[in-house]
Amino acid sequence: MATSGLEKLHAGEQATIVLAESVKADIVLLDEKAARRAAASLGLRVTGTLGVLGEAATRGLVELTPAIDRLRLTNFRSSPSLLKATLGRFRPR
Question: How many structural domains compose the chain?
Fold first, then answer.
């Protein structure tokens, strides 16, 4: 039997995934790669902080580039390729 990997996650990530399953959430917000994989393996739709910012930008709620620039001043970590992909995906049309 395949395992979701839930047991290897931090308590907060585990609780987030369990709650999302129990309320049949439309989407769950997770940034850590292992947590995202575990949630996806359970059939949950997952997004991260960058996805939330991107969606907010498409709705005109934030300007994406300045928001990401401010985020990068915090302890948030992301690969340069993911940042570039996010900017490309959510670029205003």
Answer: 2
